[in-house]
Design goal:
Helix content is 40%, strand content 20%. It is an alpha+beta fold.
């Protein structure tokens, strides 16, 4: 599928905005017939979504938003083994929830981002990126029980009512009352009230969820443990902007040392009440073979090379650059603040490429810099641009009705722009049928440690990243100095 984007000014570090699906933004969409895991006290249920929705007056709110969620998060991830795993965990939690009669419609989202959230009526969502980060059933149970608590406590409905009331008050202040600094203080206080209400909901959901964990027989310390794993992954990404999923969960579920301390305190209240399991073995078996990272429909990143089997194209970024696949582009960052962006648009095959560059989407186009050329045997055009403190190299390449765009940016006084842009353009080419056939997506693979293995050697099996050891340790929640034991099961990423 060709990426279609709206071009804008390139900014320092190319930080893409995280797409968040809010339980409060209820869009006027039609309910579709997508598959769900239907979890009740007995696990999977044969009842239809439509029948269950009729029994729950709040379900219509979630149903209206569901198609938008699928569109935002890459659709639904279908894998019977993974679905059975999630249904098994959710079913056990439902029986000990605040409302055991509540039915949940659980969708696994086909997204590498790390997120989970709930909509009114029992609509629960979890990304495959989150499933890949969790290391046992109790950690996933901690996430699901937290989201179930939002549903049973009607947090989504309460928050919607608060926001509706706040919106009315804001309109009165903005449109009716005269402009005055005191009135702006009213608006600011309203936003703070909503923020505080949200924090209160999160802490309440934490407490309810940890109780559910313990009563379902899962390790109650799993909630704090997984919060630490998410923070570790977030730090891993922030350090080097590598090719990995983003931790959306931390954007909507703020994780602080205080929150982790509270979670551990709740867990200690239940620690002596019985024996608990983590469910590590059956969880790892359940996610073995699950897709990891970018959706194959969007292409593959292998170290410094991007491959798109459907478009049959490939290119490579220079040494020292790291690539990440965003929702609407492939972005690479390199030394000396040089950035490269690749995307594509549909355009009439008859449109001249030089005219296309001049059509207004390039900010600061340098007059007379547009030239025509070929790249990888395909017609192309090149131009230079300057905007603010930045200089740009713009290359567009024609393939049928598709135009591929390579934009390279560097500080205005840098001499690194042209070498980087030339290197990427020189590597851009069409894939042969043999190359396309050889490409395979990355998956989570469960590896059993053998005699002679250690952290470094097993991490060396990782694919799709130049930072193999760092990603291996984060995915397996291994602290600094950790060792591996013979027979231990660990997650690696490979084809």
């Amino acid at each position: 599928m060709l990426r279609t984007v709206i071009a804008g000014k390139m900014r320092r570090h190319w930080r893409a905005a995280v797409a968040m699906a809010s339980a409060l933004a209820l869009a006027a969409c039609q309910t579709d017939s997508s598959h769900f895991i239907i979890a009740g006290p007995d696990g999977a249920s044969s009842q239809t979504v439509e029948a269950l929705s009729r029994k729950d007056p709040n379900a219509a709110m979630g149903a209206r938003e569901h198609p938008h969620i699928l569109e935002t998060y890459g659709g639904e991830y279908r894998d019977p083994k993974v679905e059975r795993l999630v249904a098994r965990i959710a079913g056990g939690l439902t029986a000990v929830s605040e409302n055991p009669q509540q039915t949940y419609r659980i969708t696994i989202l086909n997204s590498p981002t790390i997120n989970a959230f709930a909509l009114p009526g029992g609509y629960l969502y979890v990304t495959r990126g989150l499933l890949a980060l969790a290391n046992d059933a109790s950690e996933l149970a901690a996430v699901l029980s937290h989201e179930m608590a939002h549903v049973t406590a009607n947090h989504g409905i309460e928050r919607q009512r608060r926001e509706e009331a706040e919106a009315i008050a804001n309109r009165v202040v903005s449109e009716v009352l005269p402009s005055d600094p005191k009135n702006q203080d009213v608006l600011a206080r309203g936003k703070l009230r909503l923020a505080a209400f949200s924090r209160q909901q999160e802490l309440e959901a934490d407490a309810i969820g940890i109780r559910m964990l313990a009563e379902a027989g899962y390790d109650p310390f799993a909630a704090a443990r997984f919060l630490r794993s998410m923070e570790a992954f977030s730090n891993y990404e922030a350090d080097h902007n590598d090719n990995g999923p983003q931790v959306d969960f931390l954007s909507s579920h703020p994780s602080t040392p205080r929150r982790i301390d509270l979670a551990e305190g709740h867990a200690r209240d239940y620690a002596a009440t019985g024996s608990f399991e983590t469910g590590k073995d059956y969880y790892l078996d359940g996610i073995d073979g699950m897709l990891f990272g970018s959706n194959p429909e969007d292409g593959y990143i292998r170290d410094r090379t991007f491959y798109h089997p459907k478009l049959q194209i490939s290119f490579e970024v220079p040494p020292g650059f790291s690539m990440v696949d965003k929702s609407n582009a492939v972005v690479a960052m390199g030394p000396n603040d040089v950035a490269i962006r690749f995307d594509g648009v549909n355009a009439p095959a008859r449109e001249d490429l030089a005219d296309y560059i001049k059509s207004g989407w390039v900010t600061g186009l340098v007059p007379g810099s547009v030239t025509t050329t070929t790249v990888g045997g395909m017609p192309a055009a090149n131009a230079k641009a300057v905007a603010g403190d930045w200089q740009f190299d713009v290359t567009v390449i024609r393939s049928g009705s598709d135009i591929y765009r390579l934009l390279t940016a560097a500080p205005k006084d840098s001499t690194a722009l042209e070498p980087a842009a030339n290197a990427v353009s020189a590597s851009f080419h069409k894939l042969s049928p043999q190359e396309v056939a050889a490409l395979k997506p990355l998956r989570v693979r469960i590896y059993t440690v053998k005699p002679g293995d250690n952290v470094q050697t097993v991490a060396g099996m990782m694919m799709g990243t130049e930072r193999k050891l760092d990603l291996f340790k984060v995915l397996n929640a291994l602290p600094s100095g950790a060792t591996l034991s013979v027979g231990q099961k660990v997650k690696i990423v490979s084809e």
